[in-house]
UniProtKB/TrEMBL annotation:
<feature type="binding site">
    <location>
        <position position="103"/>
    </location>
    <ligand>
        <name>Mg(2+) 1</name>
    </ligand>
</feature>
<dbReference type="Pfam" id="PF04167">
    <property type="entry name" value="DUF402"/>
</dbReference>
<dbReference type="GO" id="GO:0000287">
    <property type="term" value="F:magnesium ion binding"/>
</dbReference>
<keyword id="KW-0479">Metal-binding</keyword>
<dbReference type="InterPro" id="IPR007295">
    <property type="entry name" value="DUF402"/>
</dbReference>
<keyword id="KW-0378">Hydrolase</keyword>
<feature type="binding site">
    <location>
        <position position="107"/>
    </location>
    <ligand>
        <name>Mg(2+) 1</name>
    </ligand>
</feature>
<feature type="binding site">
    <location>
        <position position="120"/>
    </location>
    <ligand>
        <name>Mg(2+) 2</name>
    </ligand>
</feature>
<feature type="binding site">
    <location>
        <position position="123"/>
    </location>
    <ligand>
        <name>Mg(2+) 2</name>
    </ligand>
</feature>
<feature type="binding site">
    <location>
        <position position="105"/>
    </location>
    <ligand>
        <name>Mg(2+) 2</name>
    </ligand>
</feature>
<feature type="active site" description="Proton donor">
    <location>
        <position position="23"/>
    </location>
</feature>
<keyword id="KW-0460">Magnesium</keyword>
<feature type="binding site">
    <location>
        <position position="107"/>
    </location>
    <ligand>
        <name>Mg(2+) 2</name>
    </ligand>
</feature>
<dbReference type="GO" id="GO:0017111">
    <property type="term" value="F:ribonucleoside triphosphate phosphatase activity"/>
</dbReference>
<feature type="domain" description="DUF402">
    <location>
        <begin position="18"/>
        <end position="155"/>
    </location>
</feature>
<comment type="similarity">
    <text>Belongs to the Ntdp family.</text>
</comment>
<dbReference type="InterPro" id="IPR050212">
    <property type="entry name" value="Ntdp-like"/>
</dbReference>
Length: 182
């Protein structure tokens, strides 16, 4: 497993537990890359679904991936504030120019005021049965939702206002740099 380089453009691949591709984001600029954390930025990037449908992301986003936590966080920068979409997922790996993780269905939507809702519990239950999630997955998901809620309440990591400021500024730097190169 490699480490993505700051300024490098990578793909993000989301898989399901059965090994099938779920979704691919074509271009994410690496803002920070270490063996444990990858922070990326993208805007109007092409997303391809498992059934071949495609769509473009609407707003600039800062993405946070961790190699030890079972969640990743998408910070969507909208006019009325930052909205967060959290995927409960396996820790990431980075190989062959792509960041990869397994999506475990459960999601948490966090609003600018830090209120949140847990989504897709029914999808998790269905896929757990259909894809035979091992029994260890339930306690991992429970623990990571609790950890995530703690982060939200403490405004830790991507939920801290300074996180958004720092990484948005870095993303804008690379965006302008890339525009000059073309």
């Amino acid at each position: 497993m490699g480490i993505p380089t700051e300024g490098e453009t990578i793909q993000v691949h989301s898989y399901k537990h059965d090994g099938k591709i779920h979704r691919v984001w074509q271009e994410t600029v690496v803002l920070k890359g270490t063996k444990n954390i990858v922070i990326g930025g993208n805007e109007k990037t092409l997303v391809t679904e498992s059934d071949g449908r495609t769509w473009l992301t609407r707003e600039p986003s800062i993405c946070y991936f961790h190699a030890k936590h079972w969640f990743n966080i998408i910070c969507m920068l909208r006019e009325d504030g930052v909205y967060y979409y959290v995927n409960l997922s396996s820790p990431f790996i980075f190989e062959h120019g792509s960041l990869k993780y397994i999506d475990y269905d459960l999601d948490v939507k966090v609003f600018p005021d830090m209120n949140y809702i847990i989504l897709d519990e029914d999808e998790y239950a269905l896929h757990k049965r259909l894809m035979n999630y091992p029994p260890v997955i339930d306690p991992i998901m429970k623990h990571n939702i609790e950890e995530l809620i703690r982060w939200i309440k403490l405004r830790k990591g991507p939920f801290a206002p300074e996180f958004i400021e720092v990484w948005t500024e870095r993303y804008q730097f690379y965006k302008q740099l890339n525009e000059r190169e073309f």
